[in-house]
Each structure stands twice: as C-alpha cells, then as structure tokens.
Amino acid sequence: MYTKNDLKKQLKELGIDPYGTLKVHISYKSLGKIRGRADAVLDALIEYMEPGLLVFPSHTWHITEENPVMDVLYTPTCVGILTEMFRTRPGVIRSLHPTHAVAALGADAASFVAGEEKIETPCGVGGAHYKLWERDAQILLIGVNFSRSTYIHGIEEWENAAGAISKDKTDLYVINHEGRRLYTPQYRHEAPLGSETFVKLETPAVIQGVLTFGRFGDADARLAKAAPLRALAAGFLKEDPTYLLRF
Q1: What whole-number distance in Å separates Cα of residue 105 and Cα of residue 56?
Q2: H-helix or E-strand containing 140?
Q3: pTM surpassing 0.85?
C-alpha cells in the first residue's frame, strides 16, 4: 500500500519540477492500493506542486447541441473521478470553456484559465492548452498513454492538421462563476478515430528523448515537455497533414 509520501517521492523520481506547470491525466484505478485513497492522491500532487501550477482536465464532452449549457460550478467532468474531485478542492479555478475546460491550482491559476470563454475550438490559440506550450509545461500521463493527451489535440489545431476541426459551429453556452450565461459557440473535434492514433507519437518521442517513463503507485507514468512534443508532432504533420488520421 502506498502512502501520500510514497507518491510524492515518486513524483520527484519522475523528474517533476515543482516550480513549473504540470498538466496531469490520470487513471485512478491503475494506481493500486493507496492509504487515504483518492484524496491522498490529490494531496500528494497538490502538496508537491505547491510552489508551481497544477492543472487537470475538467472536460465536459457531453455538452452538445442537444445539451448546450455548461455550468462552471455544477456541471461534472467526464474524464474520471480525480478530475471531478480536484475541481471542487479549495482554491481550484475552473476555466470557462464549454467542452474542454481545465482546472488549475497555484499562484497564477486565475491568469492561466482566463479567456477560455473566447476560444472557439477545443484547444485554440490563446487558451489554456496553448499556454501549456508557451510555458513548456510538463505533461504527466499516469496509467494512460498519449491517446488521452488533450494537449496533442491542441498541436493538431495549431499545426493545421487535416480533419482536426469541424467546418460548422455548434451553439453552446457557459454559465460563469457569477451565474451569468455566456454565448460560447464551438468548432468541434471531428477526426474519425478521435485521439486513439496519438499513440503513434510515443516511439519517436522516446527515441528523441521527448518522452520518459516512471512509476506512480502501481501505474506506468509517462512524462513529456510541451514544447519539444509540439516540435516533434509538427514535424510529422508538416510532411503529412493527415498523419494523425490513421494508425
């Protein structure tokens, strides 16, 4: 059984910079037995990253044309129990994106999530995922692989990958922290295989030193820096804009 301190030690062994920005994708069931369970997992990540900025996905893909309103305070996430628990922790700020919000905790969390209600694609320029690239954040995937990395969807957008974004907008809305309803129309992801093809980037990422591995609890952990990961994927997409449309 792992303790909170065991998990913090593993974060250090992975090479996580506690003063930087860390985006986490995590499968709770992959971790094995944890003393204190899910709360201890979050405590370990929050305490370790206290000097920096900790970011979790807070996505709501179930916000659609038929169900068009995301309430930033009350609409649950759709990407795992830990993301839902994290967004309700004291001090955590959730962005105002209708489908691909993030939740952040740290000294500059407010500025990091600011402006997402103006982004008209899942990971558009100027939004939180783009800021990960600007900061050369660390992307940590625990118990999951590149197919769960929303950041790579961002790279698709910024590098104009074929088939990444719909041609038509969907009328969506966000209710902000003050209860005001905002119009937040969206171009949606439309690649037929979704993000499953992103795993094809893992082997070249390892070869080029962009991706490293470690452990967190019982889970395999993958760690990549945002800037070199974008550069790697951009190289493939420049040669072939359809690169991520197939395995």
Answers
A1: 9
A2: strand 138-142
A3: yes
